[in-house]
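Q: Sequence in, structure out?
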Amino acid sequence: MLLKSPTQFLPDHTGDTGPRVRAWIKQVLNQDLVFQHIKVIYPTAPARPYTPMRGALSTVWFDRWKISNECPEHIETIDSMCRVLTNVIDDEVKNGISKNKIILGGFSMGGGMAMHLAYRYHQDVAGVFALSSFLNKTSAVYQALQKNESVLPELFQCHGTADELVLHSWGEETNKMLKSLGVATSFHSFPNLNHELHKTELEKLSSWIVKKLPVETAMSNE
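A: Exactly. Output:
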């Protein structure tokens, strides 16, 4: 057992829970997303009134006025959730996991949450991944990075070209904007993929994670 193995966070997507996302990934991959040396955490967002669902309760990381990259962000709920997830990160650090061995990421809204968390509050993590995700055109993330001079976590992005909920162009625009602000990025398009996960996508993600957090790095800190 690696007592100081790196940690990866997988914030879930709109209306879902951590355990259900884990089950979904297992169904797509035909196995769990597991690593010999990496601890994977699947947190669940709290239930809150969600404006795009006419105020109905949903397990979402933050509220938004509508699903669009044109409107302002609901920064109050984003920031409150950043504080909650920071406590989770701090607990892992207290248990011996250094920040540069933590990857933050998720699907859909979870990926957006991960980008806020990493690029505004935890720029010393190992990396960020965002699957079928986007940031609003006037995102606080962009504002925070305009004055940044430090080395930023690398971003791994995937997006289906047939996504009808979160448009492929929104994800592509997010990637280009972050790249212009100094983030090392990669963007992988998946033809005919809607707002869903794909086996090849998860395999690419798995390879990227191991590249960012190799076994020897974890074992050297035991």
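The helical segments are 18-29, 75-94, 109-121, 140-145, 168-180, 199-212, 215-219.
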